[in-house]
């Protein structure tokens, strides 16, 4: 049997749409009893502390460090 590792990079330019997407991902993972690794920036970790539901939903998942912050790059 193979092994699949799910990882998610959660960037630090968080907004209501990205919070809702993260909630949906966490709900799906819970529904199927799956665990994942979430790489978050230090800046985002500080922001997430004000979202207790997200913090609670991340329980049991692995959290990785994804640098202190990212700058928003202009698009072409």
List keywords for this structure.
76 residues; 3-stranded parallel beta sheet; 3 helices; 38% helix; 16% strand
Topology:
Blueprint: E1 7-10, H1 16-31, E2 37-40, H2 42-48, H3 52-57, E3 62-65
Parallel strand pairs: 1-2, 2-3
Characterization of this structure:
By secondary structure, the protein is an alpha/beta fold. It has one domain. 38% of the residues lie in helices and 16% in strands. It has three helices and three strands, in the order E-H-E-H-H-E. The chain has a three-stranded parallel beta sheet. Helix 1 (16-31) links the parallel strand 1 and strand 2. The longest helix has 16 residues, at 16-31. The model has no long low-confidence stretch (mean pLDDT 82).
Give the biggest beta sheet. Answer: 3 strands, parallel
Silhouette: globular
Radius of gyration: 13 Å
Mean pLDDT, all residues: 82
Give the terminus-to-terminus CA distance.
Answer: 42 Å
Low-pLDDT runs of 5+ residues are none
Structural class: alpha/beta
Give the DSSP E fraction (strand runs of 2 or more residues): 15-25%
Q: Secondary-structure element order, as H and E?
A: EHEHHE
In total, the number of strands is 3
Strand order of the largest sheet: 1-2-3
Give the helix level as a range of percent.
Answer: 25-40%
Number of domains: 1
Number of helices: 3
